[in-house]
Design a protein that fits this description.
- 2 copies of one chain form a homodimer.
- Chain A is an alpha/beta fold.
- Chain A folds into 3 domains: 6-87, Multidrug-efflux Transporter Regulator, Chain: A, Domain 2; 95-169; 172-301, Rossmann fold (3-Layer(aba) Sandwich), CATH 3.40.50.
- Chain A has 13 helices and 8 strands.
- Chain A has helices spanning 9-16, 20-30, 47-61, 66-69, 74-87, 95-105, 109-121, 125-145, 151-170, 193-204, 218-227, 243-256, 286-297, and strands at residues 6-7, 36-37, 43-46, 180-184, 208-211, 232-236, 262-266, 280-282.
- A 5-stranded parallel β-sheet of chain A has the order 5-4-6-7-8, sandwiched between helices.
- The longest helix of chain A is centred in the middle third of the chain and has 21 residues, at 125-145.
- The first copy, chain A, is globular, with a radius of gyration of 22 Å.
- At the A-B interface, helix 9, helix 11 and helix 12 of A face helix 1, helix 9, helix 11 and helix 12 of B.
- Chain B binds a DNA duplex (30 and 30 nucleotides) through residues 9-10, 19-22, 24-25, 27-29, 43, 65-67, 244.
Chain lengths: 302, 302
DNA sequence: ATACAATTATTGTCCGTGACAAAATATAGA
DNA sequence: TCTATATTTTGTCACGGACAATAATTGTAT
């Protein structure tokens, strides 16, 4: 019976992104995070400790080293957080995006959906994704970090968008001469929205898409690529993916795939990689992928 | 940088599903799996060891205990594998289902999709789900355990079905007097197909559905249920969900929700529970849920 | 000063082992 | 033939040391 207050060691990696091994080492070296025992005799981290760890994570992402900050008091950490957040300036955004977020905040899902569909009719699928969905998703992230909306808003919104995209992709027609692309997300990666956006755009431009969904073992991916004669395998990494594991995962898959199969990688989690490994294309923007798609394949049918 | 022959400890979980901790324990207890050092001085498991581990995994899934088989030679393991695959008798199933699976095996995804859509036109959405999708998904599971199809077939098939269901649900019209149902999957539960099937059926019968998707922290679920004034929260547990955590998760959520909000639970992972906790409805069949839906709500508008 | 190499410090992963609780299995008793 | 109780098996986690990769610092030559 989990209480509200104790997070078990086995859950800690999912909650914080730090492995249990590492946190144990921190405890040994810096005296934090300490574990507690609940009234029900369960051992784990308290909610407060979890938020403390998450703040430390943010500081590390901003350039601090563990030895400087793990071990500092909660008050001290929050002070440092305040320093770095003040540096981030308020971002302005599209009025259309703002309107959508307003509807979401008011919990008017029907309004949200119809508004999205209205925008959708006014442009191509690719434009819809790149000019409406991408900014919307970004701004939702910002709104969340400003504390204006809750995580569940984000979940529900993602699901609505995904549902719309799924429908749109289904009514897409592959064009002759364009490649077959196998889309997937690696193990431990739950975020599928980015993948779906990529699929929508590329399918809209004529590619034949096969989506395997999230959490696909590298080995299965390889076998599927073989069986379905895919020309390209496209992987998406979200911000939440353990940054240390991005490159190994890519290299691993690249190694397994035959050389004639291209490997495309994108998503905010992939951005930490500077140079792409040999035989891997790294995209920081879906638009670039469209460019390559046309450049590499359209001419083949001419 | 993984070579062809050596799999690093950090990759082992992704490759085999067993944690490094556990394999280390096996090594201590049964003398397997041993690690090797590559020419480049990298330490890890050889490819052969990996397949060995994967065979052991299959045996364990078929009821063997680790102490019986980890430690046995490769030859012995393969012999046992042969024994169990011979044991799985061919099960009879619908000819329509068989046809669909045939298409999948031939990697004819277009044929698969059009065949599904053809069947879809001949009945209501609920019937489609219960008479076509459910048997199909079951039989795919069987075919996999008979070794006839690969895991990736299953992934791709799920994704196609989900895409179809998403589209169908989107064109569903809520009926007045029926409840608002919040659908979600708990943390660590990636399987969404069952949830989607439930949503499709219940939405088809008039419920207003909000789908939060997979992997939703219990706490977020509670807040969302509040904000969106849901009458029912529906959770789905798959066979893969750690059986010892099913009941605690349910009890936890039941505790957080106001009493007037119902909690519905289903999925093969929930079947291990005999008596439902107080205030929780346990469904072993989507059909039962439809019954309750009508019984509890339809009369209210009469 | 500036670029670059060498040195030192920090950091995260993995190891081997022991402890332990949950699950599975065997055993005894009704 | 059950059911309750012991026993064994199993997987997770703690602990602290070893170590390689990475980052920071110092030294050196242009």
């Amino acid at each position: 019976m989990p209480t509200d207050y104790i997070v078990a060691p086995s859950d800690i990696e999912r909650e914080t992104g730090f492995s249990n091994d590492l946190l144990r080492k921190w405890r040994q070296r810096y005296g934090f995070p300490l574990m507690e025992t609940s009234p029900e005799n369960q051992v784990g981290y308290s909610r407060k400790t979890i938020s403390h760890i998450l703040l430390i994570k943010r500081l590390i992402e901003n350039g601090f080293r563990p030895s400087q900050i793990v071990g500092k008091s909660f008050a001290e950490i929050t002070r440092l957080i305040k320093v770095i957040t003040d540096e981030v300036s308020e971002q302005r955004c599209d009025s259309s995006t703002k309107k959508l977020i307003g509807l979401l905040k008011k919990h008017d899902l029907d309004g949200f959906k119809t508004q999205l569909k209205r925008i959708r009719t006014k442009s191509t699928l690719s434009e819809f994704v790149q000019e409406t969905i991408v900014p919307l998703v970004n701004e939702i992230g910002n709104a969340w970090s400003r504390g204006e909306i809750e995580v569940y808003h984000e979940h529900i919104c993602s699901n609505i968008i995904m549902r719309i995209l799924q429908g749109e992709i289904a009514s897409t027609k592959p064009k002759h001469g364009f490649p077959t692309i196998l889309f997937a997300t690696p193990p431990d990666e739950h975020h599928v929205l980015g993948l779906l956006m990529a699929e929508a755009v590329l399918a809209d431009h004529g590619a034949t898409s096969i989506n395997m969904g999230s959490h696909i073992p590298i080995n299965e991916l390889k076998m599927a690529a073989n069986s379905f004669k895919a020309n390209i395998v496209a992987l998406s990494f979200s911000f939440a993916y353990s940054s240390r594991r991005v490159r190994p995962t890519i290299v691993h898959l690249r190694h397994l795939l035959p050389t004639e199969v291209e490997l495309w990688v994108g998503g905010s989690g992939a951005r930490i990689i500077r140079r792409a490994p040999k035989g891997v294309r790294l995209f920081s923007d879906i638009h670039d992928a469209v460019g390559v798609l046309h450049h590499s394949y359209k001419k083949d049918i001419a």
